[in-house]
Amino acid sequence: MTVLISFDQDWAPDYMMTPIIDDLIRCNLKSTWFVTNDSPAVQRMIDMPYLFEVGIHPNFLPDSTQGRDMSEIMNNLLSIVPNAKCVRTHRAYQHHTLLAIIADYGLEVDSSIYLGEMQHIRPFDVWYDDIHHLTRIPYFWSEESELHKPRPFFNPDWGGCGLKVLAFHPVHVFLNSCTFRGYRVLRRNGLNRTDELGARECIESWFGTRRFYEHALEIAANKTLLEIALEKKDS
Ligand SMILES: [Zn+2]
Q1: Looking only at Cα atoms, what is the longest distance across the chain?
Q2: Rounded CA gap, 175 and 167, in Å?
Q3: CA of 91 to the centre of ligand 1 (A)
Q4: How far is CA 151 from the centre of its chain?
């Protein structure tokens, strides 16, 4: 099995992202990030392409803060990450026409399909018209799904082979979420209106996302999603 680490920025403040970036540098571990907005932490990762594969995380849902339509959203995000090759849409929003447009913007790898803990996941190519195609790499696990289980993080069974892309959110790593309780308080107070000290009051202490993330750092392969896609093309 191959475990890959990915993150959806989801508008997390830099004080939530910076400790993760520091961990990844200290472990010399590659990861793939899907960014929603610009920040010094995002620029720091863009400046280290040998360690951080920075892709985009477009929000195509109504009332998106990234733009009024698909092209404005794509242009906005690609102005932050001009060389982005990887995409995961916010809330996994997708349809064929949208994916063709994403490919037309030069994106090559899409990770917007969630296959909850399914075995034997592998990358595959999809053609959307005669010229546009994407390599699709579904993700295997996300804490956002884990936290909805009756007993989150209890006795996970990850046997079997296949690609296991983990999709973390910096806010849940920061909060060590083992329920949505702390996150809901933070959302109510305003994620970007709360300073680090205030956010720390919402941290949960049981076995939660932070502990699982620390475990993931130990078992992850030192590869990005783009590297996995390129390996497939070479084989
Ligand atoms: Zn998202």
Answers
A1: 53
A2: 16
A3: 5
A4: 23
Q: Give helix then strand counts, H and E, for the chain.
A: 10, 9
Closest CA to 157 of 171, 141, 135: 141
pLDDT in tens, 88-111: 999 999 999 999 999 999 999 999
- Cα distances (angstroms) measured from residue 202 to each of 73, 96, 124, 174, 193: 32, 39, 40, 9, 14
Instruction: Look at the pTM and tell me if it is higher than 0.85.
Output: yes
CA of residue 2 relative to chain centroid, distance = 17
Grouping H, G, I as helix, E, B as strand and the rest as coil, residue 11 is: coil
Cα 109 from Cα 123, distance rounded (Å): 9
Query: What's the gap between Cα 145 and its chain centre?
Result: 13
| Residue pointed to by tokens 């403040």 | 13
Cα separation, 200 vs 223, whole angstroms: 31
- Contacts of residue 35, defined as CB under 8 A and 6 or more positions apart, other chains included, come to 9, 42, 54, 55, 56, 57, 77, 80, 81
Residues around the ion ligand 1 (C-beta < 5 A): 8, 10, 90
pLDDT at 84 over 80: yes
Full set of structural domains in the chain with CATH: 2-170+208-234 (3.20.20.370)
Q: Which two tokens stand for residue 127?
A: 């053609």
- Ligand 1 centroid to Cα of residue 172, in Å, is 12
